[in-house]
Amino acid sequence: MRLAMTTLGCPKWDIETVFTRASDYGFDGVDFRGLQENLDITRQPEFTSEMDQTRRLLDEAGLSVSALSSSIEICNSDSSEENVSRARRLLPIAHGLDVEYIRVFGKGDSDTQSDSEMARTGRTTMEQILSLEGATDVQWIVETHDNWTQSEDCRVLVDRVDSPNVSVLWDVGHTARTGSESPAETLETLGSSIEYVHIKDAVYEPDHEYAMDDGWRYVAPGTGELPLAETIQLLRRVCFDGWVLFEHEKRWHPELQDPEHAYPAFVDWFKNLSRGR
């Protein structure tokens, strides 16, 4: 398994700092969900006019860009034009930095549409995206999120899209905390469709000042109530060799630990877990 960090966790770092510290901390890759104040990297010079410099910094750090985490919502019929536009802008970045994965959301309006109808829209959107030049050189990963958090629902969407270029991003925090699934249940349902994994931990403390709407709050990996160790053990058992991302959401939750401490602590935790400590 290869370890990646997300730029959600370090919203104040410039791109050189991102690469330097990711390498120093022992990560293998960086997942871009924005950079500094801008969530849309396709509008930033580091990924357009200054792409050659970004590529040089990436190579010097000995890293990969594990994924580009987009805001594309494939099951939203009223935003299909914007979805395709976003995909079109992301593809030159993916090709320029040798990125294999682009994350998308399912979303959709579950109040007015059935899962089947939303999945049909998802298929149509992905067909439009995959018709773009170079789109089949990339793997588009659908996150277990929103209407598609539970593994059986996500399976319905991915099966309906029915493309070898579309697979699953397993967010363990979502399936366990929101979907009420054990890691074994998720893995049994989604199996080899899983190509990318998000890791974060949380505790259920509904009265805490930083609790989210569902009563949970994020904590350092290994200190919470989510089945992270069990998940890693199961992934090893099936010889998963993809990316494991520490999704440190400092941008959304400023009360979380600063990245200078959270990121190296995650790498230490993961390596100790590997050694059985």
Automatic annotation (TrEMBL):
Keywords, in A-Z order: Isomerase, Plasmid
Residue ranges occupied by any Xylose isomerase-like TIM barrel domain in the UniProt entry: 19-272
Isomerase as UniProt keyword: yes
Top-level taxon of the source organism: Archaea
GO MF annotation terms: isomerase activity
InterPro entries according to UniProt: IolE/XylAMocC-like, Xyl_isomerase-like_sf, Xyl_isomerase-like_TIM-brl
Name of the protein this chain belongs to: Sugar phosphate isomerase/epimerase
Native organism: Halorarum halophilum
